[in-house]
Design a protein that fits this description.
- The protein is α+β, with helices and mostly antiparallel strands and 263 residues long.
- It has 9 helices and 10 strands.
- It has a 5-stranded antiparallel β-sheet with strand order 1-2-3-5-4. Strands 6-10-7 form a 3-stranded mixed β-sheet, with no helix packed on it. It has a two-stranded antiparallel ribbon with strand order 8-9.
- Helix 4 crosses helix 7 (199-216), helix 5 (131-145) packs across helix 8 (221-236) and helix 8 runs antiparallel to helix 9.
- The longest helix has 18 residues, at 199-216.
- The radius of gyration is 19 Å and the shape is globular.
Length: 263
């Protein structure tokens, strides 16, 4: 089996690329600069290798343009874009609007049989689990039972996966999920990690974000809140690391504002 470096060198030769430095920040892949482009090579066994097809599906429909793709390895050649939404000089309302507009663009893409069903993320929790984990599972069960026709979802549309392009904002690194379109704001709601406040400030931010998404998207507020809560609980109480601790705080904030969106 080829190593990531061997894949990169082979594709650089096949695609006439001059590879530059490795970019920091990637976790499931190695990203190389190539002039005004980047070459992303997923690591063996990573979800990014399995979901490379989704990036191609979303290309030019809210997703970054995929210039070339290697089906065997999931490697992708893409334009090199600018800063991400987490570092953009925009107020919160403008950032939510960017995300909402991308969600509507992504909906232009047809569903795909390769997409992972949302139901696979929500399993009945163990006995004696944290109360919010049980509430999250109950909410997910209700939402799954009452879901509309499934659509192809990005599945991980957080601030660091939304980048500035010359023509506007574009998404990268989709998971390729299938399910309720109201699920899509979830990743934004609990991020960026390390950039969310605490206490009452977090509750206020959570309330404002939900209210804005409810105004900008044609989905029921209950479903936007419900999916955000259920999925954040999965992340917050399923990961013992620092990120999980941050998401647990967001879970608590979402639970605190629930009565404002249960309609």
């Amino acid at each position: 089996m080829e190593t990531v470096e061997q894949v990169a060198r082979r594709l650089a030769q096949d695609w006439d690329l001059a590879l530059g430095e490795e970019l920091a920040g990637a976790t499931c892949s190695t990203v190389y600069t190539a002039g005004d482009k980047v070459l992303k090579v997923p690591h063996a066994g990573s979800e990014e290798r399995d979901s490379a097809w989704a990036a191609q599906a979303f290309s030019r429909h809210g997703g970054i343009e995929i210039l070339k793709a290697d089906e065997a390895t999931g490697a992708l050649l893409m334009p090199r874009l600018g800063l991400d939404l987490a570092h953009a000089d925009l107020v919160e309302e403008e950032k939510v609007r960017v995300c909402a507009e991308l969600i509507l663009q992504l909906r232009e893409t047809k569903n795909d049989r390769r997409a992972l069903d949302l139901a696979t993320w929500f399993e009945e929790p163990e006995a004696g689990c944290h109360p919010l984990k049980l509430e999250g599972w109950k909410e997910a069960t209700y939402l799954l039972e009452t879901s509309p026709d499934p659509v192809l979802l990005h599945g991980d549309l957080h601030h660091h996966n939304i980048l500035k392009a010359p023509t506007g904002w574009q998404s990268i690194d989709p998971k390729g999920m299938s399910g309720d379109p109201a699920f899509e704001p979830c990743a934004y709601m609990r991020n960026p990690i390390g950039g969310i406040p605490k206490g009452e400030a977090l509750v206020k931010l959570t309330r404002n974000r939900l209210s804005l998404f409810a105004k900008l998207l044609p989905y029921a507020p209950r479903r936007i809140w419900g999916w955000s809560f259920a999925q954040t609980v999965v992340c917050g109480f399923g990961s013992p690391d620092w990120a999980g601790q941050q998401w647990a705080l967001v879970s608590e904030a979402l639970w605190e504002v629930r009565n404002e969106f249960l309609h």
